[in-house]
Amino acid sequence: MIFQAGSLLLVIIGAYALKHVHIFGERDYRVVQGLVFNLTLPCAIILSFATNKHDMRMLWIVLFGFFACAVPLFIVYIGSRGDEKNYRAFQMLNASGLNLGAFCLPVVQTFMGASAGLPIIMLDIGNATVATAGSLTITRTLLHMDENFKSLPLILRMRNIARDFLSSISFDIYMLMLVFMFLHITIPQPIVTIITPFANANAFCAMAMIGLMMEIPDNRKDKVELGKVIAWRMAFGAIIAVAAWFLLPFDMRIREIIVLGSFAPITIFSTKFTDSLTGNAKLAGFSLTVTAIISLVVMTVLHALLPGA
């Protein structure tokens, strides 16, 4: 297990090192990001649905994921009062939401096998309803950061929000698989065979993307704000994990998977939204990398200690 976690960390470090010897450029992470969100992650989602039984009780995990993402957003809004508006936005966007599909899914599947993917995907369906667009809308509305958006007619604002959701292929696949689950539709075996190599590449591509995004900020205030986000996330992670372990009506294996997911790092969408609202792309990318490394360590320790494996 230590070697499994180490291999994932080595991919992050290796991609970061290759960028700094100029094999890759500063913006090349966008290429890998495109591969992850539009190819390897959608294929991993489909493969997990295709190769696992669909217990309708897992819809409780979807609801749990929604509250696990939404509630911290409002708590941070209240708790960050007194800070500068840009840094409040940074805290709200990065202290809430779980990076489940691009990070937790490959990590948990590396630890516990392909069958561990379905609970993470169900958790991410609920999480994604906020993280993929809702958090941006809520943050800029509560902090009054986009007067142009506020001045738009309601129909245009709703259209923009809908476009944010529907433009995410991973979110679309989540919704499609949820429909398949309700209708008891199975994925044909030829499709499973075709997508398997792409799905298997998801872990490597996701870790490489994180390594390519990493860049250390030189602003002391940025580092202080990152410390606040880490503290927020660890507190929320512990609360979500305890709630999952004691409240969800599933066996220990599934509850362990959700506990591991509770400590997932900052989402890719949060880094994108941070860049668009505050213009601080360096802090956004570094924050994702730091929380990803912390998450990998925490998830490895929890997997060793919990009895659900």
Automatic annotation (TrEMBL):
Keyword presence, Cytoplasm: no
Gene Ontology annotations of biological process type: transmembrane transport
Protein's membrane topology: Multi-pass membrane protein
Main location: membrane
Transmembrane annotation, as ranges: 33-51, 58-80, 100-121, 165-185, 191-214, 226-248, 254-271, 283-306
Coiled-coil zones: none
Domain of life the protein comes from: Bacteria
Subcellular location: Membrane
Cellular component terms per the entry's GO annotation: membrane
Record keywords: Cell membrane, Membrane, Transmembrane, Transmembrane helix, Transport
Protein's UniProt name: Permease
